[in-house]
Amino acid sequence: MLLKQTELSPKQLKAGPDDGLDEGQFQAYASVFGNVDSYGDIVEKGAFANTLKAWEESGKPIPLLFGHNFSDPDYNLGHVVKAVEDEHGLLVTAELDLENPKSAQVYRMLKGKRIDQMSFAFDVIEYEQAKSDDDEPITKLKELALHEVSVVPLGANRETEILAVKSLAENIKAGRVISAKNEEVLRETITTLRDAASALEGILPSDDEDEQDESEEASASESDEAKSGASGENPSVSDEELSKSGPSVDLLAANWKVLAMSQPTK
User: Fold this and answer.
1) How many domains does the chain have?
2) H or E segment at 195?
3) pTM exceeding the 0.85 threshold for the entire prediction
4) Domain membership flag for residue 259
5) Residues 72-93: tens digit of each pLDDT
6) What is the extent of the structural domain holding 150?
């Protein structure tokens, strides 16, 4: 599954009664036709015709999510009430579930123009390899299977790069040509993941240290049980003793956040 993001101009985003829509509704382009994106893909007019017909025949609405979050129902903001292809792209009219606090918050952000980007998740059904005017390899996306549309924050492209790389690998296996730009993205991603894995391995203790810790913990446990039996009280562990037992889960999580933030971005 691939993701693509569309940055809208203020005139391309309408929200609420002030823009002639019902309360809780907004209208925006989930995709635009004709422009080559950073992955060398270009969505052609008509690419959504069959999938929109399939959605209509299914009787189910196209889901509206925030940030492509499929797993958390709170991020299921509402649904698409109308989706059409025009000369510019895929124009959707969506309705937010205002009883959901997250949906209400996103609605306020849309009306205030504080968020202005849309994205959609899809599979490629039909494509064609071609050359751009600059003689660069491009992929014309001729038919797509639409899974959902999302409201996304500024900079969400970087958050979806792993999915894009995974999809790219699957498409390469299916016979698609990898462009120089996509090859560079793949190599940079592999390097970043290897550096992160090496840093995490440095945090973990060695096997010898694990065995020594287990031995020390067993001895300490026997000593605590003996003291408890003599005094008749439940054993307790001080904060100082806990700090000696190794890094806490919160500390490891903090280390991971620092590590992730320290990785170079492009």
Assistant:
1) 1
2) helix 180-203
3) no
4) no
5) 999 999 999 999 999 989 999 9
6) 2-157
